[in-house]
Amino acid sequence: MAKSKETFNKKEKEKKRLKQRQEKKEKMEERKANAGKTKSLDDMMAYIDENGNITSTPPDPKMRKVYNLEDIQIGVPKYEPQEEDLLRQGVLSFFNTGKGFGFINDAQTGERIFVHMSQMLEPLNENDKVTYEVEKGDRGWNAVNVKKLPKK
Asked: Domain 88-148 belongs to what architecture?
């Protein structure tokens, strides 16, 4: 007698294929049965609450916020020079007399600002308290019109 041509793998693949066909047939019958029972538009609606969560209940109209179209900025905002106090105060934290530059630590922001000796109105040493103005340079902010604060 000849050996059977159906192997275990072939039988398993056939079972799997028949099972998938049966599931597909059941899904099709279920769709046909529910074809007349469509959901209303209100049942299908989803809402987003003020926290960004999806809910099935509509939001409260009292919580609604109104925005003006003119207030919405798209893109990069236009540059508007800030009218802040132009005269700043700080401490000359580092100064290299050989190369003629140093850095000032701003008293309010703690920011380090570059200073060149050509912008100093009088000779200064490290740890001197100074007043200065800032201007935009090639590599960042530069201190100009640097003066030593009188000691109290």
From this structure: Beta Barrel (2.40)
Per residue in 94-108, pLDDT (tens digit) is 998 899 899 999 988
Q: Residue 14, Cβ neighbours under 10 Å: how many?
A: 11
Q: Would you list the domain boundaries of the chain?
A: 88-148
Distance CA 52, CA 145 (A): 51
Pick from 137, 122, 124: nearest CA to 94: 124
Q: What is the DSSP letter of 146?
A: E
Q: Provide DSSP, 57-114.
A: SPPPGGG-----GGG---SSPPP------S-EEEEEEEEETTTTEEEEEETTT--EEE
Q: Model-level pTM? A: 0.45
Torsion angle (degrees, nearest 10) of CA 86, 91, 93, 95: 70
Mean pLDDT of each 10-residue bin along the chain, 152 residues long: 78 95 95 76 83 87 86 80 72 90 91 91 88 89 90 71
Strand 47-48 with 101-106, pairing: unpaired
